[in-house]
Amino acid sequence: MVASILVNGLVYSGVYAMLALGFGLVFGVGRVLNLAHTAFYMVAAYGIFYFASTGFGMPLAVVLTTLGIVAAGIAVYKLFIEPVREMEATVLIATLAVAVLLQELVLVFFGNEPRHVPPALSGFTQVVGVRVGNQEMVTLVVAALSLIGAWFLLSRTKLGLAIRAAAQDREVANLMGINVNQVTAIVMGLGLLLAALAGIAVAPLFTVEPGMWMNPLVIVLAAVVLGGLGSLKGSLIGAVILAFAEVSVVFLVPGGSYLRTAIALLIMVCVFFIRPEGLFGSSIAEER
Amino acid sequence: MKSLICCLVSSVFALGLSVSGQVIRIGVVGPMTFIQGIHHWRGATLAADEINAAGGITVGGTTYTIELVRVDSNEMQPGPDAVSAVERAITASKVDFLVGGFRTEAMLAMTEVAADYKKIFLIAGAADDGLLKGRVDKNYNRYKYLFRITPVRSTYLAQVSFILLRDVVETFRRELGISQPKIAIVAEQAAWANMIVTLVALQAGTPVDKGGFGGQHVGTWRPSALATSVAAELTAVERAGAHIVFTVFSGPVGVVFGRDWGRLQVPVAAVGINVEAQAQGWLDATGGFGAYTATAGIYATGVAVTEATLPFIEKFQAEFGELPLFTAGTYDALYILADAIRRAGSLQTDAVISALETTDYVSTLGRIVFDELHDPIWGPDYITGLGVQWQDGAPKAFWPREWQPDPAKLPDLVISTPGTVPYVIPPWVKDHWQGK
């Protein structure tokens, strides 16, 4: 059972981590709680479905979907978020409205029927006695590469330095000559790139349907809060904890597997009793 | 285009009659952006077009045509939409009758609205016993307006799915020599499924001579009805050593299950209830991984349950390019309603109810006669349903085939519906368990 939980937990962790990192980046740098983040993940899944089924070929479909999501995301940021960025409650409502709008648009264009995207690699492999779909492994690799790429960008490039500086203190970063607004827009694009890659990676694994963004949004919000708002490391670890909590519920409480998300969130609440600021919340306070 | 033209023509025709007041308005209730609701509407439009083309319904020398009102209950999502939609249909659209419905949770509320307004509601899509049991029998005056056309109530649906499970268990014994197959249950978290899950769990380990399956129950998993992946549940089912997984799905999670099950080639045979697997688009929806799924169903390729079945299926396929789902039972609902109105000789609600109660109608589903709960009677000579398995790219019926409903009392009664084929254990499942 431990092997089953480990293998399945890793796959879910990869997906949630990609989403949580993107969400955490946008919040960390721009102080924007983008509730439309996972809606873009849903649109990416539909994008890959559309382009792949209209004969574009998978590589081109991936490129078109990713570019489309990043462009749309930056446009949404400029049009709906940037003008109200200083008012947190307004940002919340605006991004929620964007999420619902995206869902309704998808509903209009694709209908409500579940859609299927063919796997990049079909079949399965036995890993420590557990049946793992080859597509799951592709997803895991995509998640790992994306996270390594994000880490490289943040820690080894000038842009990454600017992003981290803006995340630490926007005003000081501005005084140091960093164009904070531009950095925020770039981070928005980067976060949505991760969301798009997550959507593309899970499309062959999950059912593609207009409501597929809601559950991940809850998990991502929980992961970011559990990890400590603004902490990228915390977001990643929070995502991994929640993913493993969900999978463990399926194996340990089979009759209550529909409660997987609720129990994962309960674990988050329990952590707050011990550390109200989240797992890595204090480190942010120190940074500031 | 053809259906659009038909729709426009019938709408214009109905509108013309509406002006002169010779119209019976029927609200077709369903989640219209989902396949279940789409088939509600399609079944009803076919029947309405046929009835209108045949001259409508004549009552007391006046001829009425049917006008359908689309009532989108959005009932796949929890919320007040369903109740609002029905209330709006009754008060604003002025419907005379209602047909359709799908989710029990929504139907309980929608039928309360129908009872409040004293509107006859022919249920075509929801199976829960509690929609009628405990209501029509306990408070007849309030709930006499409710009748069920399809599917048969959960208890009977469970009975059908039990028979299918027994069939699969016997196939495992016969072909693989597994005397005590292990049975797992994967059921969506929904009210209608609870009783079926409880009964299967109880009977799985009960010896055959005591009416059980003579197998072993190894666990029950209840994913959300809207889950987008059940790979973890299936891994757990395999780990439990199950040979057979009994499924209970009415919503989109059925597609998720079929896709993950076939994609991962989990070595368990899937049988039970999976509404999505009744749809023509099942293989496309599951990316081709849903082959060999077995489910209780209503319609299958080339199987004539009654003389009305094949003409209906052929017409439905010609019009919409796919097999009807059971929610297309709105087709029969409209014919049964028209039949009752004619026999009642009146549109007066109580007269129509009395006529409905004495219905004896050969529908596309079987012979429909209502019991005291206003439920269609289940069994030989009435409605039985089918066991359907996806074989060679098509839904083939494997039950009723050499079925003995009561071997003790009626040993000579063996029922085989023409067109049925034997159940096939999925090849990867057979390969996995052969010789073990």
Structure, explained:
The complex is a heterodimer of chains A (288) and B (436). With 288 residues, chain A is mainly α. Chain A has helices at residues 2-30, 37-53, 58-81, 88-110, 134-156, 158-168, 170-175, 180-202, 214-227, 232-252, 260-274, 281-287; strands at 124-127, 130-133. Chain A has one domain: ABC transporter involved in vitamin B12 uptake, BtuC. Chain A starts with a helix and ends with a helix. The model of chain A has no long low-confidence stretch (mean pLDDT 86). Chain B has a 7-stranded mixed beta sheet, with helices on both faces. Residues 4-20 of chain B have low confidence and may be disordered. The relative contact order of chain B is 0.12. In chain B, helix 4 links the parallel strand 4 (97-100) and strand 5 (120-124). Chain B folds into 2 domains: 2-151 and 305-368, 3-Layer(aba) Sandwich (Rossmann fold), CATH 3.40.50; 155-297 and 400-433, Response regulator (Rossmann fold, 3-Layer(aba) Sandwich), CATH 3.40.50. Chain B contains 14 helices and 15 strands. Helix content of chain B is 39%, strand content 18%.
